Amino acid sequence: MTRPVGRVVDVHAHVLFPEVDALVAGHPGLAAARALDARRNGPEALAVNGPMVGSRIPKLTDVGVRLAAMDAQGVDVQLVSPSPSHYHYWTDELTARRLWESANQATADHCAKAPDRLRGLGLVPLQHPGQCAAALDHALSLGLLGVEISSHAPGRELSDPAYEPFWARAAETGAVLFLHPFGCTLDERLDRWYLSNTVGQPAENAVALSHLVFGGVLDRHPGLKLLAAHGGGYLPTHIGRSDHAWRVRPDARNCAQPPSSYLRRIWFDSLVHDPAVLRHLVAAAGADRVLLGSDFPFDMGSEDPLGALRDADLPPAVLDAVAGGNAAALLGLG
């Protein structure tokens, strides 16, 4: 198969830091958080998750192993973000600060071992909105390109006014915000057959993006560089329903333009597991708004992201853009 023109960039890849999780070991809130996670996922999923993650520890932690896997995939550059299991949005302010400081530094150190091939994102504590701008600045000061965030924090949606200083600072600095859900508030309804992930993740993406759109966040901060994992979940494929509500219901018209127009102001990764859905995403968001993503190295990702991209039978120029050109522009890779 013909290799895409230019560098191939995977914007959805993770790194794991045992030293970060060590910061919460023995914390009184950890047991409750794990119990909630177990309730939401169910025992069958937890029985699979442990061995699955364990078998991937070398790819998640060892730069040499990571680079070899990238070579096998034909990937030149990865945008590396901490495993969402590091969010720990239940922690108090002091512990949260220790977590994001540690995760940001560890990510920067990991990427520094292969600076021509790895770029990184840090973390912010969404449960403490007052810390988010400082955490973002800390990540940027270490050479990271932005931060990874989940779809919500306990008791707060992304449309919460408390996040306004964070959005403003992100827009001002040009930081990349990688929206990657972790967990789903549908709880026990999804506790079998791994529905917590297969249904929960795209649902969380759609809810979070809808809060940013309908809540007017993208109107107030048009410069935000927002990158949504998992192709934005269900929202791009069902955006017509959002547009219809915006047209016919006054309570749904809290954003200045039809919701579909905002898809062209958001970036999306290509991890949708279906060639037809990927073609629809490109059509809905624009060929310049979709970037290659693999969810490296987890089992719900793609071991052959370029192959998945080729299966969509996109025009050559679009394939080249999604494979790396769009990411180079968004991330400033030159």
TrEMBL record:
Signal peptide, first to last residue: none
Residue stretches making up the Amidohydrolase-related domain: 9-333
Pfam families, A to Z: Amidohydro_2
Domain of life according to the entry: Bacteria
Residue spans crossing the bilayer: none
Protein's organism: Streptacidiphilus monticola
Family matches, as PANTHER family: 2-AMINO-3-CARBOXYLMUCONATE-6-SEMIALDEHYDE DECARBOXYLASE, ISO-OROTATE DECARBOXYLASE (EUROFUNG)
Keywords of the record: Lyase
Protein name (database record): Amidohydrolase family protein
SUPFAM superfamilies: Metallo-dependent hydrolases (SSF51556)
